Predict the 3D structure of the following.
Amino acid sequence: AQTVTQSQPEMSVQEAETVTLSCTYDTSESDYYLFWYKQPPSRQMILVIRQEAYKQQNATENRFSVNFQKAAKSFSLKISDSQLGDAAMYFCALGPYNQGGKLIFGQGTELSVKP
Amino acid sequence: KAGVTQTPRYLIKTRGQQVTLSCSPISGHRSVSWYQQTPGQGLQFLFEYFSETQRNKGNFPGRFSGRQFSNSRSEMNVSTLELGDSALYLCASSPASTVETQYFGPGTRLLVL
């Protein structure tokens, strides 16, 4: 079975500070994508960052970066210089190559940003 | 390009009724995936359609079905609604049958009374 686990239901960060959200996953597949999605109160799912499992280099998108540890099956998201607009539910997701458009999501981490 | 659209945005039904939700993908996208989001179960994959064929199916009862039309628009149908079907239903479109470039719609919120 393929699973994604986010062990932090809630996190809080001070504006302009850095926060790291944790994610672990389990799959027997060798080729897969990993994602972090953001879901603000509007409920629209927004892609934050994507990592292909065969790439050793950690993905970075502006203030967002990941720490991908393939052997440990760990995929954490670091948000630097946190902004009020970063407050949202964050979901980690696994997408095996051979399963088309199927994503397996974690339970989510609710991030609040304090001014 | 216009994004993924879902209609209706909100829906109230009673137990035993059936419901049809619609998803229009981004122009040129041929794959549509459907997800159910509930507070208890989180986000769960329902099924994916690509070029009018169901490619993948999640672990949902047969009351949940879908289809895709030649213009890539997709519908999902839930028959004999149960209270537990109350959820946010999200669809996502992609150019191909892959999660690499999957874009989500705003969702349809279904309430079953």
